[in-house]
């Protein structure tokens, strides 16, 4: 099994993906690393560049009928199984190519009625974030029709799959019941973590399956982040968090004024019980306030007054404090706004501290 993925930068998501691949002993090749991303801004349609990178990487294997290749996103994906488990699940489909699925027909909802029907409330619609197949067949699939770098990769693969002749010729099947791939968007209620043999595993309780590849597609990335605090092999009842002591600093060797500056960004997007107690815990964090940047972003009218009162009482004790009051409709934009603001603050800190 060969894993191919695409990443232009070594982000935290990329590092998490590579760690999960290494943990499972998977041979991985990263395409496009440290090179400009040519597939659009990924806030809407785009990503054809990814398929073109895959096609070029498959060129040496275009006649190999035995090598299985997994094509997967990197930044919002973790691998949960080794090669033997993945190959066993793949061969059970009796297909040459298997593509992951989701509940949303994106980016062209009008194509929904063209999909084959699926029983037992299976995931019906193709998601391009996960594809596995034999190298020769994948090469044929991606060679079937050219795609521009800025065109949409998911729409491209959807149209190829919905072409009955192509689907039958290349023996393509969809993973409608999350045997191999789990895309989280609109399916988060289907997924639970179960403690087995002193470590957590991901289980789709809707289909009674244990997916091998977890993808936080769309706006499900926060859920992915939560799951990856525990999987793969990130937490156990005996040893607790396996990563929490990595890259730590011994503060006992530093004076308070030399402590690292830490940004504490609190995003309140729903009415929260015990909010007063929460604010009290924030105030009592055992870390010099002069080395803390404190930020509140509130989308809930009910909590805005309490946040303002908190900042009025203790905000001047911090290195800096910020309050951003937004509306629920501004949820995603508010998150992006806060990131941009603190990117500028980071630049300031690097220049003047």
Outline the structure in words:
With 353 residues, the chain is of the alpha/beta class. It folds into two domains: 2-241, Spore Coat Polysaccharide Biosynthesis Protein SpsA, Chain A (Alpha-Beta Complex), CATH 3.90.550; 251-352. It is 31% helix and 22% strand. It has ten helices and 16 strands. Strands 2-1-3-6-5-7 form a six-stranded mixed β-sheet, with helices on both faces. A three-stranded mixed β-sheet has the order 4-11-8. Strands 14-15-16 form a three-stranded parallel β-sheet, sandwiched between helices. Helix 8 packs parallel to helix 9 (301-314). It starts with a strand and ends with a helix. The model has no long low-confidence stretch (mean pLDDT 94).
Q: Which class of the largest domain in CATH terms?
A: Alpha Beta
The helicity comes to: 25-40%
Return the domain count: 2
Q: Strand-and-helix sequence, N→C?
A: EHEHEEHEEHHHEEEEEHEEEHEHEH
From the alpha-carbon coordinates, what is the Rg to the nearest angstrom?
Answer: 23 Å
Strand residues, percent: 15-25%
Note the main sheet. 6 strands, mixed
- CATH domain topology of the largest domain: Spore Coat Polysaccharide Biosynthesis Protein SpsA, Chain A
| Total E-strand runs | 16
What is the 3D shape? elongated
Distance between the termini: 48 Å
